[in-house]
Amino acid sequence: MLRTALRNVFAHKARLLMTVLAVLLGVAFVSGTLVFTSTISDAYQKSSEKGFSNVDLALEPSGGKESGRGAPGKQTRLSQATLDKARDLPGASTVTGSVSGFAALAGKDGKLVGEGWQSTGANYYAGPGEKGKDARYPMSEGRAPQRGGEIALDQKTAERTGYKVGDTARLSIDGPVRKDRVVGVFTTDDGNVAAGGTLVLFDTSTAQRLFSAPGQYDQVTLEAAAGTSQAELKSQAQKILPDGAEAVTGKKLASEQSKAIEKSMSGMQTGMLVFAGISLFVGIFIIANTFTMLVTQRTKELALLRAVGASRRQVTRSVLIEALVVGTVAAVAGLAAGVGIGAALRSLMGEIGATVPDGPLVVDSSAVVTSLVTGIVVTVLAAWLPARRAAKIPPVAAMSSVHATATVRSLVVRNSIGALFAAAGTALVLYAATLDSAGEGDLPMGLGAAVLLIGMFVLTPLLSRPVIAAAAPLMRVFGVSGKLARQNSVRNPRRTAATASALMIGLTLITGMTVIAGSVQEAIDKMATQSFKADYTISMANFTPLAPQVEKKLERDGQITASSPMRNSPARVGKEVEYMTGVNGETIGELTDLDFTSGSFDGLTGDKVVVDKKTADSRKWKVGSAFPVVYEDGKKGTLTVSGVYKGNEMLQGMLLDTGTLDPHMERITSMQVMVKTADGASESAKSSLEKALGNNPAILVQDREDLSESIAEIFTLMLNMLYGLLAMAVIVAVLGVVNTLAMSVFERSQEIGMLRAIGLERRGVKRMVRLESLVISLFGGVLGIGLGVFFGWSAGELIASSLPQYSLVVPWERIGLFLALAAAVGMLAALWPARRAAKLNMLAAIKSE
Amino acid sequence: MTTTYTGVDATAPAPAGVAAARATDLTKVYGQGETKVVALDHVSVEFRKAEFTAIMGPSGSGKSTLMHCMAGLDTVSGGSALIGGTDLTKLKDKKLTQLRRDRIGFIFQAYNLLPTLNALENITLPLDIAGQKPDKAWLDRVIETVGLSGRLKHRPSELSGGQQQRVAVARALASRPEIIFGDEPTGNLDSRSGAEVLGFLRNSVRELGQTIVMVTHDPVAASYADRVIFLADGRIVDDMFGPTAESVLERMKSLDSRVRTS
């Protein structure tokens, strides 16, 4: 039986081609994902290991160095005294203090270099007496920065921007522009730099002034003396630790970072694998279609095998062996293609600026095994039903001289099951849509969607007739070709359905996501623009805090009629930490448009505070309620509620006057500044504002339109990524249509020959095949878009419960585009089968057997 | 009978007709070198209007090839094939297709109906392809002649073999082609259905003035024709007018034995 199976594979090479391609693409997607993510994560891993190579122990505020501004009243930094004590530890050889923060660097063209959140500034720690060298940053050119006004740049950034030693560079830390002289260029193992970020070094005291406070460090790292272990060093250091700080060994730091890298990579990996799974799922339809047809074609041959004594199991097995061979070939080829994709993706990421650390391509055994197993299992599973059908062919079929026609089995059972599933799924989705919170609704919604989708798969053969019949008037335009195409497309409803379903899945997802994203974007846009009356908001490009100088500068600007900063400071209320927002109590009413349920912004000074309804409800506050509070600096106070408003994503929590909040803030900074100008938003007002702020690359001046645009940008980017990932599923669906058409042309060669003989031109034959393809693709497209809109609507109902501004936006333009896409899929898929049909040898086709 | 037969027998009683189709020195060669097969060897023949001609010959004699070449279904290696005054060998595929559509009718052995169309739609298919409206009166007459009036809405799968072939005959007649070619039109039918179909064909020649050329290997079928042409080894070896089943059978036997001994 093995030999028969192998012979069959070779005999049907061409017909198996599409199947192989479909599996190959899916497997390539899987292995590409695995190779890419493990390569990247390996590279990051190595670079982070390097980064910790000369750290044996780190002293830092409890909970990591990021939590410097954590709980109120517990501000911990490491002082010069701690560093000096650390140096005296018997087990320490080198001790380094470091301090870092955001530092935007402008290129020679005045624009921000790199992405905002990867722009870092840090200190060059030259040791006691400023005489030593910082081992982390070996200078390749020039010298280290020694005083204010001097900086050093990392080599990659220097190359990218063209800055050389002696040039003056423009920088911004928290708003105002600084001009500093580049005195050196250094190389570094810093992970952030390896990943494409910029690093600017200052001398230690300048860096402390900019990022913390004089004599204060974020972190102190120690290198152990020879013969001292990390653990020994740690126990020595415990004695000198100030309150609220901890000592962490280098090993632990490295392993924590490696865990964090793995975690972020595995999220990305899962996301990509989901899409790979979708395209493999779509591939199943093609595989099943192909094997069904191969079995039908070989009815006589298989019956003969049965007649000469092959058992049912042997027949099934022979078909499955065929599938196994096909699956293996496709999986191996897919794996190879996937390794290529992984390598290509990495260099692509380099191209678009997101530099990843260098490292070898990692193809680990788990990637190989997963890819191969997936490809083979999917193929064999998809061939299972056709194989079982093959075994049911009665031996007598070998004897009958009648040309074996496909038996049309009743669809009654199938339709009943499908209707049941579709109805249950719809009901569940509708039920979920009425639920109030996303938390309860998620599960029934997902389950309902899955059940409905399955129901639709099962029902597509039934749906194919009425839906395609509806296209009849359109097809009439194309004369006899159109009529024949329409009828041909419903001749084998199961096959048409399987082909269309493959396309349906892709378009359902694409449409659903487009609807949801479009609606959410609209809602957020409404929220962002409606709750503000300010003409402009001013913030840092990466939304890090803005220095108070900025608002002072703005206050001096004549065209501004009202402005208010938005400070942000943690405070303890009861047992919990709440973030308080400091605003200008006099002007805030002019700058925002909040919906007050009681009270107002009036007289927001002193101990007055307005809170959003959610907070007020949960704490059972009303206008007039007073509550105690512990500010950031640990001082206690009492606040009185003077208004309750409906919060939204842009503005929520407690708002109080800056006059009340500022004295308690350690560093007075704002998240953004809102301004209103005399003549409203205009290009000239904007550019004069930008000018007033020193044309600072790190500062963003946005009017409401800019805000909408930047929101739209985020959504567009997200949607484009999803489209890109789903494109694979669509490509596989195209292969499915090609496959089905090729089968149809092959099966109907006699008919096509006759049509040619009685006078249908080649063009007419081509058109017939093309139209059939178009009908099948549009059928799948219409179903997919319909389902997608339905899912989009129902998911939206769920979202609306937590996003009051949400309302369904049906993107008609996009839907038109998707229909056009389905049509294009049809035309593209028909290219080759139509050519084949037109070239068919008439005589061979009509000669009787 | 070893001399090459060329052209029309001048001594035969020719009806006062003009040629509907004519072949001159028609040659068809398959393959090259060692595997070269000469299917038609300088065949010249003329089919007259309103005449029913049968082409006979043993398997491999080239009778089907002759029909395919004359009907513009196959290319020729040499010589010319004319339908009316048009030389098919000079036509490109597009023109040739149009000529088949507008001027030639076909009846195949395996009926070759489209299973998705009903009987009437199958009959008017060539007209639909040409984008023409059928001549209602003519169509009714044809349908009545082949006796399908009650079955026009049936699909081919709901018709018997004889009925299907009658649909095929009606399809060939519907567009009033200059000439109809039949490839073993009764090959798949039982004798009664076969006789029916052949009767229609003969009637359409007698009553409707249709020209028909039919390839067959059945002497009884050939006896319905006005004239029988015998082919062997790619050459015309005899031409018989007013054939009977017996005379045709006699001739075939002699051809068969000749082929076997050669």
From TrEMBL, chain A:
Coarse class of the protein's main subcellular location: membrane
Span of domain ABC3 transporter permease C-terminal: 274-395, 725-841
Entry's transmembrane regions: 272-296, 319-345, 365-385, 417-435, 447-475, 496-520, 721-746, 771-795, 815-834
Membrane topology (UniProt): Multi-pass membrane protein
The MacB-like periplasmic core domain, residue ranges: 17-239, 496-691
Keywords (A to Z) from UniProt: Cell membrane, Membrane, Transmembrane, Transmembrane helix
The keyword Acyltransferase is annotated on this UniProt entry: no
Pfam families (UniProt xref): FtsX, MacB_PCD
Signal sequence annotation: none
Region (Disordered): 57-76
Localization per Swiss-Prot or TrEMBL: Cell membrane
InterPro entries: ABC3_permease_C, MacB_PCD, Macrolide_Exporter_MacB
Family membership: Belongs to the ABC-4 integral membrane protein family.
PANTHER family registered for this protein in UniProt: ABC TRANSPORTER PERMEASE YTRF, MEMBRANE COMPONENT OF TRANSPORTER-RELATED
Protein name (database record): ABC transporter
Source organism per UniProt: Streptomyces daqingensis
From TrEMBL, chain B:
Keyword Transport listed: yes
Residue ranges the record marks as coiled coil: none
CDD domains, per database record: ABC_MJ0796_LolCDE_FtsE
PROSITE patterns xref list: ABC_TRANSPORTER_1 (PS00211), ABC_TRANSPORTER_2 (PS50893)
Lineage top rank: taxon: Bacteria
Keyword vocabulary terms for this entry: ATP-binding, Nucleotide-binding, Transport
Matches recorded under SUPFAM superfamilies: P-loop containing nucleoside triphosphate hydrolases
Pfam families, per database record: ABC_tran
UniProt-recorded Gene Ontology molecular function terms: ATP binding
UniProt keyword annotation of tRNA-binding present: no
Start and end residues of each ABC transporter domain: 21-258
The protein, known as: ABC transporter ATP-binding protein
Biological source species: Streptomyces daqingensis
